């Protein structure tokens, strides 16, 4: 596969993440903050999101598993997760958190448990898709680096 085709496939994959509603414009703004002085900025920020989200999802599971659920605590955790997901442009996670907070306000345990399941599902989907995006991007950069190094040595 030639370089142009690889780049087009990467662009198409990225575009599909927006078309599916997984990402929003905030992710593009995050990408614009990346430059030569910090080439791994997006990966680092998203990795922090992944680490924080795993902890928050675990905290939510534990809080909802209590005999007397503290809905204010649950709402506070969901609010943190909503903010984190919004900051990286994880639109469907953010939207699921908005619904979740409504059930917290109503103190509806069944609704909260359904929303927790939905938030986890959206989170793991966007995590998987972004990890794929970053892996493919890294492979493309390695390939391009190798290609240009080879061309420099052989006067392509």
Describe the model.
By secondary structure, this protein is mostly helical. It is built from six helices and no strands. It has helices at 3-19, 25-32, 41-64, 71-88, 91-106, 109-154. Helix 3 runs antiparallel to helix 4 and helix 5 (91-106) packs antiparallel against helix 6 (109-154). The longest helix is centred in the C-terminal third of the chain and has 46 residues, at 109-154. It is elongated and about 60 Å long. The two termini are 18 Å apart.
Can you describe this structure in just a few lines?
With 156 residues, the protein is an all-alpha fold. 83% of the residues lie in helices and 0% in strands.
What's the structural blueprint in terms of helices and strands?
Layout (H helix, E strand, L loop, with lengths): L2 H17 L5 H8 L8 H24 L6 H18 L2 H16 L2 H46 L2
Helix pairs in contact: 1-6, 3-4, 3-6, 4-5, 5-6
- The averaged pLDDT comes out at 89
Give the overall shape: elongated
Largest sheet: none
**CA radius of gyration:** 19 Å
Treating each run of at least 4 consecutive H or I residues as one helix, how many helices?
6
Helix content: over 70%
Strand and helix order: HHHHHH
The total of beta strands comes to 0
**Any low-confidence stretches, pLDDT <50, length ≥5?**
none
Could you tell me how far the N terminus lies from the C terminus, measured between alpha carbons in angstroms?
18 Å
Q: Please report which band the strand proportion falls in: under 5%, 5-15%, 15-25%, 25-35%, 35-45% or over 45%.
A: under 5%
* Helical/strand content category: mainly alpha
